[in-house]
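LOG
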Amino acid sequence: MILSAKIVCTLLALFFVATGWMKAGGHPHMIEEFDKFQLPHWLRILAGVLELIAAPLMLLVWWLPTLASLGALLVSAVMVGAAYTNFVKRPAVFGWGTLVILALCLIPALAFNPLQPLLP
């Protein structure tokens, strides 16, 4: 289970490096998406920066799993907003896709939870 969670965390980190870079860097597709949904561009930049902060933390899963858990929690918050936007502004299939990514983010967040030893 732990090895699987580490692999999922690593793959997600690589995904969020790419998407964060596209959002924060002002890739034309991301600008178009935020314009289409009538969302402010500061939100695009904020989401991208949060993804770019979380991704390196998630890559630390092989050495410091607790930090990876914090990165996964951070990016999970971004994914909640993305899921909401996709369910409200697009066909439902896009919302379900973001919920799958959110669920995958919760795997390392729960597997390497720093509070786990305190829980009964």
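LOG (cont.) second protein
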Amino acid sequence: MKLVPVDTQRAYELIREKIITLELGPGAAINEQRLAEDLDMGLVPVREALKLLAHDDLVIITPRHGLYVAELDVPDLERISEMRLSLESLCARLAARRATPDDLVVLEALSQEQSSIPPEDSQRLFDFDHRFHQAIAQAAHNKYLARTLDHLFGLSQRLWYLALPHIEFLPGAVEKHLDLVGAIKAGNADQAEQIMSSHVQDFYDKVREVLAAEEQTGSPPHRPG
């Protein structure tokens, strides 16, 4: 695989962050020159980074409309959630079977860390949830599964940022992590799979409710054109 130049990688990370956090909103037109100036970077790495983001399904490149941020909506949530539901559950099952002592140390440390996060700090809980799921993926010891889940999480993040101002259920959802770590430590694959499945399903159900309510009260972003 061709290595990505450092400046292109940096541009990719900065632009991706703008898209994920909705600074560049769904459907927003992208002006390469203006974006390069905002990032204080050259035009070439920005263009190459946008191609990588198009491969990640976060940017759309068309001859007619030029470049714009990929849209998202409730149907997107359905497509992503059905994949994550299956793959995250598989990941937890594999982690219960394959987790090493070092993996368990990491999971225990994360469990302790979550207790120090104030329940009202949704942003920190959101970031913590991502790191926790990454640790489960690491404990599953399947790099292809981990890469796929990380890609899906990137797509999910924009949906979650849309809902984040309205989310009040995140602390309760994160509490399930403790039970999940216990099941993995005990090597109980069936229980780990069930807890993860319930955790992911509950989360998406509530995010879906928020997004559906927003669609009823306002127009979702559309592609330029």
